[in-house]
Write a structure and sequence with these properties.
Elements: H1 2-7, E1 21-24, E2 28-30, H2 33-49, E3 54-58, H3 61-73, E4 79-81, H4 89-94, E5 102-106, H5 121-131, H6 137-158, E6 161-165, H7 172-179, E7 188-196, H8 200-205, H9 207-217, H10 228-275, H11 280-298, H12 310-320, H13 327-332, H14 338-360, H15 362-395, H16 405-434, H17 440-465
Parallel strand pairs: 1-7, 2-7, 3-5, 3-6, 4-5, 6-7
Helix pairs in contact: 5-6, 10-15, 10-16, 11-12, 11-14, 11-16, 14-15, 15-16
């Protein structure tokens, strides 16, 4: 359903290579968790006595370790597989199909390794060769393969791998994956789920009503409900949870699509900038747009000359574009309107940037334009992503006002994106307009600062060289919270000044 509705992809179910011989038993539902675990231990002991390998599935590390304690008390030798034994994971799973093996694992653990009846031949051979490097590998292989055939047949006679799950997962996919560990390639096997009314999924199912029914029927302690209608009801409860999770993922994807559309625009512009040889036309368009916005702000269309704020426009141009334009004098001329002012400012801006390109050199100017554009786009886009995350975190509250959070998010994110583009144009124009060549005095001052920093660094290096661990007179007089003079990077009080 997810692939079809979200991605428009069809799904084909691949049939098994051999007919499935595994027996999937009906779920056993107990009233309390204690009764369930007692029944689980008894079922494992029965299979253990018959030498049938058992794989016990749990939903968490804590529950697997709790069950391990119960089995230890019952005298059942077993292995525990969870995230804390990740180094031995493949080995434990490979041995899970051996005769009489009992393995406790979280439902998600060890899915990358096959469980073969009788054990994994290749793992056994590798261990045998590593234990006796002087032995003939072919002889070891022949011996182990012969033994494995006998062990595999014994496991099949015992009933194959028994998958015993202690709880239903919210997703039927996880439960089916656990069942599928048994009965591979037509091998015999069986699976069953042991549940209690205290399980998370059973509470969703409505365990309180079911418990009242059981008390009315006079169900004794330790007895279990085993019926096909319980399985169907649980599957319906699982499908409800899966449907809810699917709707959440689908809604999340719709929010991501809004951001993805904006990402395509930004990354498209970024690629164009990176591939372009000359960016003068792009920066010119940005400059024209900024000038147009400023003229519109300080000299509104269809307004009279006495309503113009020419002094404000002149100072805004100097700050935002780097232009020293005599706007006040231009506005005092006869027959001047906002369009004429706009054209004069654009011409002045072109001459201003052309002179700057001559001062820097065409090649340097192209490099500066590209660097400024890329750095500004990256910085603005990072800020925009943070703003969108904050918006997404609070837009859900709009539903209390009977507004669709998704539509609100789309509307506001579009406004934020327009603001991003506006601020991008303004910042690029401002930086390019105010960039200038350093004077000789400024260059000399910079060189002096660099030389002073280099001299200080050399002095520190000389002090480190003269440091003698056994001669306290070479340590200087560092404060307890200052760096140790030995150069370790630790504080003095935690290094040579440690009491």
């Amino acid at each position: 359903m997810s692939f079809a509705e979200i991605y428009g992809l069809g799904v084909v179910e691949v049939p098994t290579n051999q007919p499935v011989a595994r027996v999937d038993e009906d779920d056993q539902v107990y009233r309390t968790t204690a009764e369930k675990y007692n029944a689980v231990v008894e079922a494992i002991k029965v299979s253990y006595d018959q030498k049938q390998p058992v794989l016990v599935g749990t939903t968490s590390i804590e529950k697997s370790e709790f069950l391990s304690g119960l089995l230890t008390e019952a005298g059942v030798i077993h292995n525990v597989l969870n995230a804390r034994q990740h180094e031995k994971e493949a080995k434990i799973v490979a041995d899970a199909g051996k005769l009489g093996a009992v393995t406790i694992a979280t439902n998600m653990a060890g899915r990358g390794t096959d469980i073969k009846l009788g054990g994994n031949v290749e793992f056994t051979i590798m261990e045998a060769v590593a234990a006796d490097p002087s032995a003939d590998p072919d002889e070891i292989r022949n011996r182990i393969e012969t033994e494995h055939i006998t062990d595999e047949q014994a496991v099949k006679v015992a009933g194959g791998l028994y998958v015993l799950a202690t709880e239903r997962h919210e997703s039927r996919r996880i439960d089916n994956q656990l069942r599928g560990r048994s009965g591979r390639q037509g091998d015999p096997g069986r699976s069953s789920f042991f549940l209690s009314l205290d399980d998370d999924l059973m509470r969703i199912f409505g365990s309180e009503r079911l418990e009242k029914v059981l008390n009315t029927l006079g169900m004794k302690e330790g007895e279990a409900i085993v019926h096909s209608w319980v399985n169907k009801s649980l599957e319906r409860a699982q499908s409800k949870v899966e449907g809810r999770n699917f709707d959440m993922r689908k809604q999340l994807l719709k929010f991501d699509d809004v951001m993805n559309d904006q990402r395509k625009v930004i990354f498209g512009q970024r690629r164009e900038i990176m591939e372009a040889e000359d960016l003068a036309e792009i920066t010119q368009d940005m400059r024209y747009q900024v000038i147009d916005d400023l003229v519109t702000q300080f000299m509104p269309p269809k307004s009279y000359a006495d309503q113009w704020n020419t002094e404000g426009l002149q100072s805004a141009l100097l700050e935002g574009v780097g232009l020293e334009a005599p706007v006040v004098e231009w506005a005092a001329e006869e027959g001047v309107d906002d369009d004429i002012i706009r054209e004069k400012l654009e011409d002045l801006g072109d001459k201003f940037m052309a002179k700057k390109a001559v001062d820097f050199g065409p090649e340097n100017m192209r490099m500066i334009e590209k660097q400024v554009l890329l750095e500004t786009i990256d910085g603005k886009w990072r800020e925009h992503l943070v703003t969108l995350e904050h918006l997404r975190a609070v837009v859900g509250f709009r539903s209390y006002a009977q507004r669709d959070p998704l539509n609100e998010y789309k509307s506001e994110s579009f406004q934020l994106f327009e603001s991003l583009l506006d601020s991008l144009r303004e910042q690029v124009t401002q930086v390019l307009g105010n960039v200038r060549m350093r004077s000789a005095d400024e260059q000399q001052a910079t060189m002096m600062l660099q030389q002073a920093a280099l001299k200080q660094q050399m002095q520190i290096s000389e002090e480190l060289v003269s440091f003698n661990e056994n001669d306290r007179s070479t340590w200087g007089n560092p404060g307890r919270n200052e760096s140790c003079p030995c150069g370790s990077g630790k504080k003095f009080k935690q290094c040579h000044g440690k009491i």
